[in-house]
Here is the input.
Amino acid sequence: MRTALNDLLGIEAPLVGFNRSPGVVAEVSRAGGLGVLAATAYTPAELDAQLTWIERQVQGRPYGVDLLVPGKKAAGDPRDLVASLRAQIPDEHVRFVEGLLERYDIPPASRPPTSNGELAVNLDPSGVPALLDVVFAHPIALVANALGTPPPTLVDRGHAAGVVVASLVGKPEHAVRQLDAGVDLLVAQGTEAGGHTGTIATMILTPEIVDIAGDVPVLAAGGIASGRQMAAALALGAAGVWCGSVWLSTHEDITPLSVKRKFLAATSSDTLRSPLRTGKPARQLRSAWHDEWERPGSPAPLPMPLQPMLIGEAWERIDEAADRGHPGATALESFFIGQVVGAFAELRPAAEVAGRIIDDCARRLRELGTLGG
Ligand SMILES: Cc1cc2nc3c(=O)[nH]c(=O)nc-3n(C[C@H](O)[C@H](O)[C@H](O)COP(=O)(O)O)c2cc1C
Here is the structure.
């Protein structure tokens, strides 16, 4: 299977696998696609260690990194970013989260909470240079950005280093802005996708973006987890696919098992697009968490990054208790996932998942070729 993407990235199959687990990223690249590590949740030092580990596994095969630099977000004081953001969280919201944990009888965490300060810094333009220093110290093939136009430093440094700069888009206007900013690759991400997503379906969005992009290759994302879906994306004019959710059904993915079990039981109707986790609309598994926040009298979610700062510790407690089978925590348990969750039947090795998507797509394309007459 060859498209413009193979030569652009030096890969064998036009499949990109996005995930926060270094094990998944390495397996996708080893299978002939391109593994892309989500960098946002890591400190610069952690990211450096993860990228070093991935390089040992992939032995010269290409891989990439994804950052998230939102165009719009709550502003903090750059002299003391984390404290100034924390000060903007209303007491009403803090009390609501405490009350919710109490009603579900969620025990305190056994470990001290991880500071959500890093996330706030990583999501802020002031924190980006430190991450970029790490990213460009490694031999990456691609750097991607989501939630807005990549900052000029990212595009310039990418091009100076010969790294492909990609950007996720959810509507045609985004694509026009990203092309003006100089990106080399567009990812047309439909509303079916897990994580932050717009409202246009992949089937509609992909050809719209392909028509705007001209010579710039476009990847289809959102709702692609099988060879059949990959073949459909290629038929829409995409040069390849960018898959996220499907890797959460693999052994190597670091998402807690309590969440993965809920994914295995879920149907394609069990997700919602909601700002309740990050402050921006993101597709996730519906749970009691959403029912509670949507009740009349509950506070409105805060803007990014205040909402994740507000609820970060609560989620650590929920995940830990759900892992021990706590019923209240299990009811609340949720994570980002797309509508393809309904197709998850069992947990499998990431190499097997990647290999099957690539092989099934090639077979499907051959079969479709015979339909052409
Ligand atoms: C658990 C999860 C977390 C995500 N986090 C990010 C992120 O930090 N940055 C980003 O660019 N995209 C993120 N996404 C979106 C993916 O990059 C990708 O576009 C999407 O998963 C594709 O649709 P699919 O989920 O149907 O495969 C996330 C997706 C999932 C499932």
Notes: Residues 18, 38, 40, 66, 68, 146, 168, 189, 192-195, 221-224, 242-246, 336-338, 340 surround flavin mononucleotide (CB under 6 Å).
